[in-house]
Amino acid sequence: MMRRSVLSILMFGLLVSLLGGVALADTPQQGGTMVVALRSDAINFDPPFIQDASTSGIAFQIFEHLIGREFDGSYGPRLAESWDISDDATVYTLYLRQGVKFHDGTDFNAAAAKSHFERVADPATGSHMGETYRQTIAEIETPDEYTIRFVLHEPNAAFIDEVIIQNTGYVSSPTAAERYGEDAAFNPVGTGAFKFVSWIPDTRVELVRNEEYWDGPPNIAGVTYRPIPEAATQLTELRTGRLHIMTTVPVEQMAVLENDPNIVMVGEPDFNTRYLVFNLANPLFQDVRVRQAMTYALDVEELVEIFLEGVAAPAKGPLPNYSYYHKDDVYTYPYDPDKALELLADAGWTPGADGLLRNEAGETFQFTLMSPSGRYTKDRELNEGVHYQLGELGFDVTLEVLEFATLVENLQTSNFDLGYIGMMQRTGDPTAHLDLMYATDGWANWGGYSNDAVDVLLSAGKRTGDMDERMEIYFEAQDLIAAEAPTIPIMNEFYLLAYRSEVKNFEFSVSRTSDYTKLWIEQ
Amino acid sequence: MFRYIIRRLILLIPILLGVALATFLIMQLIPGDPARMMAGLTASEADITAIRVRLGLDQPLHIQFWEFLKGLLQGDLGTSLRTRRPVAVEISERFFATASLAVMAIVTSIAMSIPLGIFAARRHGTWGDNLSMLVAMFGISAPSFWIGLLLMYYLAYVLPILPPSGMYGPPWTWVGFQSYILPTITLSISSTAILARLTRSSILEILRQDYIRTARSKGLAERFVLYRHALRNALIPVITLAGIQLGALLGGAVVVETVFSWPGLGRYVVNAIHFRDFPVVQGGVMLFALCFVLINLIVDLLYAFVDPRIRYE
């Protein structure tokens, strides 16, 4: 009930903001500086090193990608007006926009774009994406001044997602990169709608509108970002009108925001999954029946409803629910403790007199559940719920709450039994999720899952550019993975934000980055 | 006196070396790997190894420590693993915010606590004494994030006279000063309470001394007895504690810095701990240790001014 009411409020907020936008869109006012809160400060504005959400959100206003992602999930033109992909998905030819200039006056052309991508790939640069770029791109050609061609080592239908639409794919001015060197972190020069003015660490980042922006200058005069780590402080700043957009809406504060007529709240699902991962090196979890039983034993709907009050949706399957490749009728595990006990009995585990599950040797089903605290919304509380529900069925679970850095190290070194973690990507493309988490050599396959059939499918999906064929391949892969339950997908969290009602024509866009070019502030 | 100061300053060297070693070892002992944090969740082992080599984290511990010490002697605190900028530069950008806030807080504390302590001591056993000590008890017990949010709610939202958060300039500008008010009050409440209680008990103890009885019996006015004879002696423990409090305010302002989005060192170092940004943590802790030791030296020197019997050889 609670969930429905919050959802309807969110939808209402979205509707109101859309209607407001439509009704007043014809009379946008010019000027005004929009103040946006960040949960943490920016780190480094040089695109090869951008990794975190705060920097990425600001960089989105300063820089542009060659190709972008539209609201409906399709690709859209940005610095490239159009593109061709060879049938075998090994050659990507992009036709670039003409007459665009970087903020420092440098011409944007194929040579500039080439220089940017080569800088990311250069081992001397030391970008975290360098290895991926080198492994993917064989050569970058510039047949004419406004055409750039990426020749890949092997077919890759996800190239645009993996290389172009990454933080590292924000095209930066080659002259600025050369001029500033290491100081490029403090001197970002792109082609975007806003120009960088200054950055005072932990205080603010200031941008001013780019009067020469190729798509017309924005309505607002500038944007100021303020790092405000405490959500309650963000809330006060928003309510006093010193802040226009609040980016961290805590679940507990939603009621306050709903009752404030000056504030509009919007929520949108994005491409994240929070899930429990089994360490398959642990003999306890090697039996598929045990993993399935544990999945049946968890009432995920209830957990999400209790702890996330409708700001997340229970996950259905290994791919985020909102990915365009998500299979709606994917193999799932509705809450069914009887079925769980049945499967456990088949696997040799039956409840003893004390209610604890025991095998023939009389051993209890003992393992540790590792959870971060404060990294994801209500992570610790949710895992206390998981701990309770599994305990109810007779599992001998110890809940260990860890600091995030420690949890990551434990996962990456296979030092865990069952761990709670989140995967957040800019895109819903399956390569960014399934390949990382479920391919045998996937970088985020911490549980050590390996299934030849899944590997073959994932590799085939990556090699074909045909969308229907990909859809079929990934539907099959999702079912195969879900049936083997190497993870228990818990939920897809919504991205919530709240803004002042004087902000008009606000467009909420995917991947936690918002386009500020069309909005305006009522003065 | 001069030789005493020099001797104390020389003593700084082994103290700072000890702090450097202790911080280095503690950072090694806590789980979590900086290379993994830098590489991100989805990095391959090859990427992680490459980063580890680049940062010199693959070297044996004693070599890593030696490299750190060598840099330190040249005034180089290393480079932040996260931002790739020199730690010394990043610290200097934030030191003023923290130090000025701590100084304002301790000045406020002293200005409020000593009169409060005297008031309570003079009215020892009365309701005025009990009430002021009750308020002081509240100040010690109330968590600063709660007080901070409460003050923010009433003074920035209900009665919008102050900015809710942020630092808008140095305290000598009007806009800057306004932004200092809320964090300064929040930060000073607990030390005001502690100092007020100490001032009260210290004065009460002095008032029981023989020389006070002598002063009173020779007919001196009570005000003169209190301010001229009792207070000066009673202030010695208060100065010591104020010094310790200033050190604590410098390093312990994390909560207040977070609540008020203050661009200070505490928040910076705590973030660095979460990211296992070793050079930043080491640099930050070294600076805190240096401040602490220097404050103690100043406190020791102040004794001589308050109590002429104290001489340093």
Summarize the structure.
Chain A is an alpha+beta fold. Helices cover 33% and strands 23% of the residues of chain A. In chain A, the strands form six sheets. In chain A, strands 11, 12, 13, 14, 17, 18, 19 and 20 form an eight-stranded mixed beta sheet that branches. A four-stranded mixed beta sheet of chain A has the order 1-10-9-8, covered by helices on one side.
Task: Provide keyphrases for this structure.
heterodimer; A: 523 residues; alpha+beta; 4-stranded mixed beta sheet; 16 helices; disordered N terminus; B: 313 residues; mainly alpha; 0% strand; globular
Total strands of chain A = 22
What is the averaged pLDDT score of chain B?
88
Structural class of chain B: mainly alpha
Separate helix tally of chain B: 13
Averaged pLDDT of chain A: 89
Largest sheet of chain A: 8 strands, mixed
Cα(first) to Cα(last) distance of chain B is 6 Å
Strand content of chain A: 15-25%
Task: Tell me the overall shape of chain B.
Answer: globular
Helix-and-strand structural type of chain A = alpha+beta
**Alpha-carbon distance between the termini of chain A?**
39 Å
Counting copies of identical and different chains, the oligomeric state is heterodimer
Rg of chain B (C-alpha, Å): 24 Å
Q: Overview of this structure, please?
A:
Chain A has 523 residues and is α+β, with helices and mostly antiparallel strands. Chain A is built from 16 helices and 22 strands. In chain A, strands 11, 12, 13, 14, 17, 18, 19 and 20 form an eight-stranded mixed β-sheet that branches. In chain A, a hairpin with a 5-residue loop joins strand 2 and strand 3 (75-77). Chain A is globular. Mean pLDDT of chain A is 89; it is low at 1-25. Chain B is mostly helical. Chain B is built from 13 helices and no strands. Chain B has helices at residues 2-29, 34-39, 45-55, 61-73, 87-122, 127-141, 144-158, 174-207, 210-217, 222-251, 254-259, 265-275, 278-306. In chain B, helix 10 (222-251) packs antiparallel against helix 13 (278-306). The longest helix of chain B has 36 residues, at 87-122. Chain B is globular. The N and C termini of chain B lie close together (6 Å). The mean pLDDT of chain B is 88. The interface between A and B is large, with 40 and 51 residues.
